[in-house]
């Protein structure tokens, strides 16, 4: 009989954390975890009153598991979700660029790209609670990507191979004096210049100590990924709509979720 009671005690100590984890999967806001912890403490206290310290220790071990180990396991779940979300966001942005290269224009509404449905997780600051957000469908934000639009021209030049670097193009009359680039890293490698230009097609070349690079032509918008020209600033498509946010005028794509990612604690719509 005593053996049977010990087995029941052990099964109870296992069942409560297991049930807590299952309920937390469907209700991740933290309530099931708090309830499970409270129940384990109550049962442990009941066994302490009966002076059954072995059973009390078993239930306290279950409590400590929910208090210490399980939150980190949930955080790993969130990090895995973050990886999937970042991968999907990068994939959709790349497909927008590919669409423009094939069709000569940006897609009107992303309906042809078969956007994936996502589940993203947001940890609160104490990592004890997480929120689950579903992203599905598209919300158009025409012109939202035009806010404070600037073009970033940049190049990498090995240390000591150039002192004066500039970008010249049809936007400054191909005048090096009007397009001097700064060594932003103070190491002679990365040179850059931001110019307040609207999205559009630009012809330009990089000039280093009078040596002219090849003339390039590029359509610059938020979908552009060029080695020497891209959108400099990324405006925030703020919102918590649970949809993909898209600006068909500039190719800007974002997730309509105000929850924060696990590592950087930035709102999802900021990526």
Give a description of the structure.
This protein has 271 residues and is an alpha+beta fold. It is built from three helices and 13 strands; from the N terminus they run αααβββββββββββββ. A hairpin with a 2-residue loop joins strand 8 and strand 9 (211-212). It is elongated. The termini are far apart. The model has no long low-confidence stretch (mean pLDDT 79).
The SSE order reads: HHHEEEEEEEEEEEEE
Radius of gyration based on Cα positions: 28 Å
Q: List the uncertain runs.
A: none
At CATH level 3, the topology of the domain at 148-231 is Immunoglobulin-like
Gist?
With 271 residues, the protein is an alpha+beta fold.
Q: Which descriptors would you attach to this protein?
A:
271 residues; alpha+beta; Immunoglobulin-like; 13 strands; 23% strand; elongated
Element layout with pairings:
Blueprint: H1 2-26, H2 31-49, H3 53-103, E1 118-123, E2 130-135, E3 138-140, E4 151-156, E5 165-169, E6 182-183, E7 190-195, E8 200-208, E9 211-212, E10 216-220, E11 229-231, E12 244-247, E13 252-255
Parallel strand pairs: 3-12
Antiparallel strand pairs: 1-2, 4-7, 4-11, 5-8, 6-7, 8-9, 8-10, 12-13
Helix pairs in contact: 1-2, 1-3, 2-3
């Amino acid at each position: 009989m005593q053996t049977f009671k010990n087995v029941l005690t052990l099964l109870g100590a296992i069942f409560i954390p297991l049930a807590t984890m299952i309920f937390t999967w469907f209700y991740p806001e933290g309530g099931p975890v708090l309830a499970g912890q409270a129940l384990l403490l109550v049962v442990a206290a009941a066994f302490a009153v009966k002076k059954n310290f072995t059973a009390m220790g078993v239930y306290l071990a279950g409590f400590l598991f929910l208090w210490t180990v399980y939150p980190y396991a949930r955080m790993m779940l969130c990090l895995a979700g973050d990886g999937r979300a970042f991968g999907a966001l990068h994939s959709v942005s790349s497909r927008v660029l590919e669409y423009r290269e094939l069709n000569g224009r940006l897609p009107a509404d992303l309906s042809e790209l078969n956007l994936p449905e996502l589940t993203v997780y947001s940890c609160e600051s104490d990592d004890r609670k997480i929120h689950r957000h579903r992203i599905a469908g598209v919300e158009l934000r025409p012109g939202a990507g035009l806010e404070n639009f600037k073009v970033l021209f940049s190049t990498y030049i090995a240390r000591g191979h150039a002192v004066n670097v500039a970008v010249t193009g049809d936007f400054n009359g191909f005048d090096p004096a009007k397009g001097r680039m700064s060594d932003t890293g103070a190491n002679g490698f990365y040179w850059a210049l931001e110019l307040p230009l609207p999205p559009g097609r630009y012809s330009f070349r990089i000039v280093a100590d009078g040596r002219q690079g090849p003339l390039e032509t590029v359509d610059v918008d938020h979908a552009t990924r060029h080695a020497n020209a891209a959108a400099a600033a990324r405006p925030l498509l703020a919102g918590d709509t649970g949809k993909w946010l898209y600006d068909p005028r500039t190719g800007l794509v974002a997730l309509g979720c105000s929850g924060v990612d696990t590592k950087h604690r930035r709102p999802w719509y900021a990526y």
